[in-house]
Amino acid sequence: MMTLNSEDTSGWKTCYLLSTDGRNRLPGFLKYLRDRKKACVAKFNDSTASTRAILVVPFDPPPVPSEQLPAGVDKTQLLYVKYLADDRVLSRGKKPAIDPNKQLQIEQQKLKEKQIQMQQQKIQREQQQQRQKQMAQQKSMSQSTSSKKGIGGGILGNLLGAQQKTQNHLDVVRAKRRNNDLTPDLTSGAA
Known about the structure:
- Helix content is 48%, strand content 16%.
- By secondary structure, it is of the alpha+beta class.
- Strand 3 and strand 4 (52-57) form a beta hairpin.
- The relative contact order is 0.08.
């Protein structure tokens, strides 16, 4: 790792990382970033987990200073990186940590609110179903009373209603026959 001692006011530092895997993929990666004008961002923790850092590989790195290169290092194997390793700066955008007991209380309260809401929805559904049943019963009652037309219900009512319909039908047929034929009907009056 070759470090340049440049640091801006926000705490970002810069350095060059040397690729040692021998695969020669670094130039293609940099071309990919440059073509798409994208930056690569990575989080980094050291082995002791005491230092955290964010690494940024910009798509437009400055030219590699060839006079500062160690002997035998190819400049195509160098990667310009900006990094931020200050925990105070890294945690600036994060919410403060919540006490686990408070977190548990918050979750329990949310659960209770959800249960109350579900119970209210259930009660509303039951009330709506009861209203629909009552309306259906009222509708069926009004239909059954309007179809009876003053004749009592049950078997006797049905029998009287059928007799009345038959008599009305016979009256209509006799009236048509009288208008068509002036001859008297001998069976008239027999029902």
